[in-house]
Write a structure and sequence with these properties.
Elements lengths: L12 E6 L3 E9 L5 E10 L2 H8 L4 H20 L4 E6 L1 H5 L3 H12 L3 E3 L2 H14 L6 E6 L4 E7 L2 E8 L3 H8 L7 H17 L10 E5 L1 H14 L10 E3 H11 L4 H4 L13 H15 L3 E4 L4 H9 L7 H14 L6 H18 L5 H13 L11 H11 L7 H15 L14 H22 L10 E4 L3 E5 L9 H10 L3 E5 L2
Parallel strand pairs: 1-4, 4-5, 6-9, 9-11, 13-14
Antiparallel strand pairs: 1-2, 2-3, 6-7, 7-8, 10-11, 12-13
Helix pairs in contact: 5-12, 6-11, 7-11, 8-11, 9-11, 14-15, 14-18, 15-17, 15-18, 16-17, 17-18, 18-19
Length: about 500
């Protein structure tokens, strides 16, 4: 069943984030399902921390560049219909002697009130935004910006404490990596500096059953570099896992490169070519300090956290976030019908319980999700709906899902529509053990879809399934059944012939 929907649909809100390296605006809304949805956004390079570290104040050139970006951000927010705009500034503005004066100028000339938030606030917002959309319970979250790093410890999806450290990617690169390319001695000094500050701040090692999460533009660029090198099947970075081993390989590859040559790296934004090495070394050192073998990447952070506060949305349980994401997705397609989806889910579940009584729970859940979302493809192309649905699942921001879960659902839908669909393209996201069950679940999905299509609308479908030398499925509401290649697929998958008994 869909979650309870809010009684009203609040207008979109805009969040402007004046960071140390870049500025961003996002416009988000809480849709009628309770899902936080990104409507639009843009970014601009600012490089404010460079001025602060060199002269402790913002230059006129940097302030003019920031004003130009803010005018554009305001236009984006207005164009998207945002009724409320919140603007915040972080590390560089905190450290700049003329930061407060610049905030006054922005208010006078642009009518935008900017709040300079401290490291603790930045950490709290980053935690709320990053953790809400990921299926995690306890661990450490780091948010690496251009001028600072916030480290948050959390338990059972509740924030315990925040530590703010001056370990931003651009700040570290400008301070330690002064040659191009950086020398090994400079890299070692940077590593020692990061390790020293982490130890001094008593950043703990990961505990048992704790996970390391990360957010920020530098980490997302590193994840994109890794994803592109692997021919990874899921386009979204939210929920991507970056291993320490692969991060070390990236650091080894990019460290000897001249800055101008880093522009050719697939996945790296051109404006981060001057800060990616410092940020990557800092993240690697952080992982080694806390004893993490992987980072779970969040595509969300401070901006989403501020929007959650503005919209009075809590860091909900993972299952509730996942449910809201699914309901939000299907509600965008006029070809999707609640009644048809509910009947298909019911038939698939009834058959699966009998045919695969020892099924892995994650495959069972994938079958249920597949039966639920299948009809969104009807809005685009009935014939190609399975492939279209799979592609949507792999590219849409579905909060609360792991990449493994998304891969299982997408592969199951593809296989239901095409028995030759290659599930090996999902690599290690789907194990060989899961793949065997998944292929049988795809047959059940196809069977449930065909049964639902032949039963009168808006009436519950009762299904009885008996297994002996053959499999007999009795559906009193079924008006007709014609033998097809689905029977052959069923026999290959389950090793028994299929008999479907209609009510006619």
């Amino acid at each position: 069943m869909p979650p309870v929907r809010p009684n009203h649909h609040p207008p979109p809100v805009a969040v402007i984030d004046i960071g140390s390296n870049s500025g961003r605006v996002v416009v988000l809304e809480q849709d009628r399902t309770g899902h936080l949805r990104l409507l639009t956004g843009t970014r601009a390079p600012l490089r404010l921390v460079r001025d602060v570290d060199e002269q402790q104040s913002l230059s006129e050139e940097s302030m003019a560049r920031t004003m130009e970006a803010l005018r554009d951000f305001h236009a984006i927010a207005a164009g998207a219909g945002a009724k409320r705009i919140v603007a915040v500034a972080t590390a560089a503005m905190r450290d700049a002697r003329n930061g407060p004066l610049f905030m006054d100028r922005i208010r006078r000339e642009l009518g935008i009130r900017v709040e300079i938030i401290d490291g603790q606030e930045e950490g709290r917002y980053g935690f709320a935004g990053a953790v809400r959309g990921l299926p995690v319970a306890s661990g450490l979250l780091f948010d690496l910006g251009g001028g600072s790093m916030q480290v948050s410890h959390f338990s059972n999806r509740r924030l315990d404490r925040v530590t703010s450290l001056p370990l931003g990617a651009l700040r570290l690169s400008e301070t330690f990596l002064i040659s191009d390319p950086p020398r090994a001695k400079q890299i070692r000094r940077l590593q020692k500096h990061v390790s020293k500050l982490l130890s001094k701040a008593r950043v703990p090692a990961l505990g048992r059953r704790e996970q390391l999460l990360g957010t920020g533009g530098t980490l997302r660029n590193l994840a994109k570099i890794d994803r592109n090198a692997r021919r990874y099947p899921i386009t979204r970075l939210h929920g991507y896992e970056l291993s320490l081993k692969r991060l070390r390989d990236i650091v080894a590859d990019i460290t000897p490169m001249r800055q101008k040559n880093r522009d050719e790296i697939s996945g790296l934004s051109a404006e981060r070519a001057d800060s990616i090495v410092g940020g990557a070394v800092a993240i690697q050192t952080f992982m080694e300090h806390v004893g993490a073998s992987t980072i779970l990447v969040s595509g969300q952070g401070v901006r989403e956290g501020i929007a959650l506060r503005m919209l009075k949305m809590a860091v909900a349980a993972t299952k509730d976030v996942k449910e809201a994401s699914l309901v939000s997705l299907v509600s965008r397609f006029d070809g999707w019908k609640l009644d048809a989806a509910a009947r298909r889910r019911s038939v698939a579940a009834a058959l699966w319980r009998v045919l695969e009584p020892q099924a892995d729970p994650k495959v069972t859940e994938a079958l249920d999700h597949s039966a639920r979302v299948l009809d969104i493809g009807r809005s685009l192309d009935f014939v190609a709906r399975h492939e279209l649905v799979a592609n949507i699942l792999l590219s849409t921001e579905l909060n609360g899902f792991t990449h493994e879960e998304l891969a299982l659902v997408a592969a199951l839908v593809r296989r239901a529509g095409d028995r030759h669909a290659d599930t090996k393209v999902f690599g290690t996201l789907i194990t060989d053990t899961d793949r065997a069950q998944l292929h049988r679940a795809a047959v059940v999905l196809a069977l449930a879809d065909e049964i639902e299509a032949r039963c009168p609308h808006r009436r519950p479908i009762a299904v009885a399934c008996r297994v002996d030398r053959k499999v007999t499925i009795s559906v009193p509401l079924l008006l007709s059944w014609r033998a097809s290649d689905l029977g052959q697929r069923f026999e290959r998958a389950f090793g028994k012939p299929l008999i479907v008994v209609t009510g006619a």
